[in-house]
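ok new one. same drill as before - structure tokens go in, u give me an amino acid for every spot. 427 of them this time. try not to just spam alanines like last time pls lmao
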């Protein structure tokens, strides 16, 4: 790269990061930590780096010590790993300070992991973001070793969303009608449109979400994986969205896509589902009751944000409700969340917490009530689960059944409670 261009980019970015306006997220950085931030596009990974830059500047770090680079800058097209060394050399010839590296979307540069590992080995502080989970393949994870802390970044939780909207939830907020009513009203926006931070500044939220999805679809899926049949991938995404509440085997997905006129094989479906997970568009849960060999091939798939899911479904409320519960549990417990399906169906099971959760939009109907309550009670007795909940759209009560207590909560209150109960960094 041209040295003058490198200097120009460094200077532009130093000016830019100083003036970024931030909404502080509840993240506590380790003073001596190097970080890899991973997540879907626009979830706020870059802003976590900006947050750290501002924290450092408040502590007296000079802006000349900050080396922030965004590798989606078109001036970096075709960049190779050896060019990263050139950028470092130009910086150190220009400034007398030892740089703190902030490298945004670095997965674009082949061989990036060896460069950042070398920086960490030489005691540079390094912060990295990426929007592809393949960044943590076994080979790359081995290269990074124990030098980096890995942090998944999600769109806003409901608590963060409320903070952005100006709500301060004091201890008695539930008994303050103005605050409570405002929270309930705000939830509708969050429920249907999701929590991407940037989205909240736009009136036409659906158009913004559609644009984001197109960027992910064409940039992170079609182009990155050189897909020759983008129509099959497009159809698969739609069918996964429509099947959010149902376990889906690879064979079932193949048959659904093929029945719509797009002939694909099981191997293609396996690859495509993997690509969707690598771009953080979807995640999956295993059936706790399934045999080990079946867990991988028959999963439930959820979308990482309700706003993206809502682009694909008609009359979405029931699907959005379960998807939002899944997102919230996934961000807190990761791979420790399951569904349970063996003669009894329960939507979510967290074994380490002895916690069963059913999701039902409305349990006022007698048949629905009996099905949901009997199901969770039977599962609780079989699994010796101690914490039982049914998450609904609006219902709230406590149900006593066969010596067990089941807490019924509206989704908005459940989200706030689970957000409050978290310890450590909240994403």
């Amino acid at each position: 790269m041209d040295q003058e261009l490198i200097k120009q980019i460094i200077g532009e970015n130093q000016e830019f990061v100083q003036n970024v306006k931030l909404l502080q997220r509840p993240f506590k950085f380790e003073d001596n930590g190097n970080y890899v931030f991973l997540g879907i596009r626009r979830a706020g990974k870059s802003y976590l780096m900006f947050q750290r830059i501002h924290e450092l500047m408040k502590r007296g770090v000079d802006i000349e010590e900050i080396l922030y680079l965004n590798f989606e800058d078109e001036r970096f097209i075709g960049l190779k790993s050896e060019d990263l060394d050139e950028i470092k050399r130009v910086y150190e010839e220009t400034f007398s300070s030892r740089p703190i590296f902030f490298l945004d979307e670095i997965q674009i540069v082949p061989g990036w992991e060896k460069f950042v590992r070398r920086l960490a080995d030489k005691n540079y502080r390094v912060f990295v973001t990426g929007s592809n989970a393949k960044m943590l393949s076994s080979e790359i994870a081995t290269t990074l070793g124990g030098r980096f802390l890995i942090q998944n970044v999600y769109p806003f939780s409901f608590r963060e969303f409320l903070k952005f909207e100006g709500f301060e939830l004091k201890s008695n907020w539930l008994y303050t009608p103005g605050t409570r009513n405002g929270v309930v009203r705000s939830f509708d926006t969050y429920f249907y449109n999701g929590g991407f931070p940037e989205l909240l500044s736009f009136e036409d939220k659906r158009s913004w979400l559609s644009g984001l999805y197109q960027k992910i679809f064409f940039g992170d899926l079609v182009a990155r994986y050189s897909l020759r049949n983008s129509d099959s991938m497009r159809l698969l995404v739609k069918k996964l969205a429509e099947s959010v509440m149902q376990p889906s085997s690879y064979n079932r997905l193949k048959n659904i896509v093929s029945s719509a006129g797009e002939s694909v094989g099981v191997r293609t479906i396996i690859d495509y589902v993997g690509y969707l997970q690598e771009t953080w568009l979807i995640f999956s849960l295993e059936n706790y009751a399934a045999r080990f060999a079946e867990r991988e091939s028959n999963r439930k798939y959820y979308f990482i944000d309700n706003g993206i899911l809502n682009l694909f479904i008609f009359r979405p409320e029931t699907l959005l409700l379960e998807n939002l519960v899944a997102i919230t549990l996934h961000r807190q417990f990761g791979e420790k969340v399951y569904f349970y399906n063996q003669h009894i169906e329960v939507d979510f099971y967290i074994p380490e917490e002895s916690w069963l959760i059913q999701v039902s939009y409305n349990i006022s109907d007698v048949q629905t009530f009996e099905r949901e309550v009997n199901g969770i009670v039977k599962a609780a007795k079989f699994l010796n689960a101690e914490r039982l909940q049914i998450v609904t759209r609006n219902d709230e009560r406590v149900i006593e059944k066969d010596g067990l207590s089941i807490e019924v909560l509206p989704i908005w209150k459940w989200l706030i409670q689970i957000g409050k109960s978290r310890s450590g960094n909240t994403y």
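The first strand starts at residue 35 and ends at 38. and btw The radius of gyration is 23 Å.
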